[in-house]
Every structure is written in structure tokens, then in C-alpha cells.
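Lab meeting, item 3. Inverse folding demo.
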């Protein structure tokens, strides 16, 4: 059997993950933060047309004329304007896709604000968690994006560490990467704290020195 693969790593990241994780959803209610190129919006809209779902897209820039569809609602607002946005949202959601402001504490804030709206079994996608494409000398070389994505990756690990019983977590490192959260229950999320990695310990420093001297 011939396996098809798209030339664009970004396309593979977005479409392959969505196809895999969303294939079993019926009448999906999808909340999307960040429209920009419209690739994810267009894909979500196709799903909603096929499965009689509903897509709500939120962006600080006005994309209200990008699509005309009874399956789509556009909200022109900041993603953290929860009091305004929640008036338009359904009571529960199946999918949340976050691709707006890529700063670690902002991402964490959005997760904590909107995660309670997900049904158990629902998916929360966080775009741009891999620093690899932005490392020095790489094609997308960018100090700002490298640091932002690495800090986002770390803070999502911290959230997961303190909520292992509440959601499953997977990562995709295709292109700029995805964090993929699957909600397990309706418990409130525990707040995250910094993790204490032993690689920064005196013990590990001593190990490195001994290794260097032998």
C-alpha cells in the first residue's frame, strides 16, 4: 500500500494530527484560538460540515469574512476575554485548538480558563511547543520563537506533572510541534509549580566532573 505524505511539514503537523485524533468525534463542538492562514480553520470547518458540528474561531484580528457557513461563528476578541467569549460558546466543547499568543504563562492561563469546558474525552491542542526549527543556524532561526516555544513546552510539562490523573499528554515535534491533551474526567485542574530536575543538582555536577576526570 502506498502511503501518501504531504510535502509541507506544517500541513503534516496540522492535518495528520487532526485526522488521527478527531476521526471518532460526532457532531463536534470546536473552539479555535487563532485563525491566521486559515488552514486549521478550513479543516475544522470541513469536519463540522461532514459531521454536523459547530466551529467557533476567536482572533484579535478580524477574519469574519474569511468563510460564510452556518457551521462557523467568528468572535473578534482577545482569547483571554473569557466573560465575553463564554456568552457565545456552548456549555461544553469537544475540541480546543490554541494557536494565538505564544507566551508560556499566557498559554497556561488559556488552558486553565477553557479546559473546564471540555467534555471528558475531549482534546486540547496547543500549537508551537518545539524550539527545534528556531535554533541558531536552522532555517527558521529565531531567538524569540526558540525561547517562547521551549518555555511553553516546559510549562505544559509542569501542568501535566501536577495533573497526571486528569489528562493524558502527547507531543508531536513535526514542524513547530503540538502538545496534545486528552481530558480524562471533570475534576478541576491542580495548579502547576516548577519542577525540580536533578540535572541541575550538585549530585549531577559531581557526576559530570568525575566523568570528565576519568
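The presenter then showed the designed sequence:
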Amino acid at each position: 500500500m502506498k502511503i501518501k505524505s504531504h510535502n509541507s511539514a506544517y500541513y503534516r503537523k496540522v492535518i495528520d494530527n487532526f485526522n488521527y485524533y478527531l476521526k471518532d468525534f460526532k457532531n463536534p463542538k470546536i473552539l479555535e484560538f487563532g485563525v491566521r492562514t486559515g488552514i486549521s480553520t478550513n479543516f475544522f470547518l470541513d469536519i463540522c460540515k461532514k459531521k454536523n458540528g459547530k466551529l467557533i474561531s476567536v482572533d484579535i484580528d478580524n477574519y469574519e469574512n474569511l468563510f460564510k457557513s452556518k457551521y462557523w461563528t467568528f468572535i473578534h476578541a482577545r482569547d483571554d476575554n473569557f466573560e465575553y467569549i463564554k456568552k457565545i460558546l456552548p456549555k461544553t466543547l469537544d475540541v480546543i485548538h490554541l494557536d494565538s499568543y505564544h507566551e508560556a504563562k499566557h498559554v497556561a492561563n488559556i488552558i486553565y480558563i477553557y479546559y473546564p469546558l471540555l467534555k471528558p474525552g475531549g482534546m486540547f491542542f496547543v500549537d508551537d511547543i518545539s524550539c527545534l526549527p528556531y535554533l541558531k543556524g536552522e532555517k527558521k532561526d529565531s531567538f524569540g520563537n526558540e525561547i517562547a516555544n521551549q518555555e511553553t513546552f516546559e510549562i505544559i510539562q509542569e501542568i501535566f506533572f501536577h495533573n497526571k490523573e486528569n489528562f493524558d499528554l502527547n507531543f508531536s515535534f513535526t514542524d513547530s510541534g503540538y502538545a496534545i491533551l486528552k481530558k480524562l474526567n471533570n475534576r478541576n485542574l491542580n495548579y502547576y509549580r516548577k519542577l525540580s530536575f536533578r540535572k541541575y543538582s550538585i549530585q549531577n555536577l559531581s557526576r559530570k566532573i568525575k566523568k570528565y576526570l576519568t
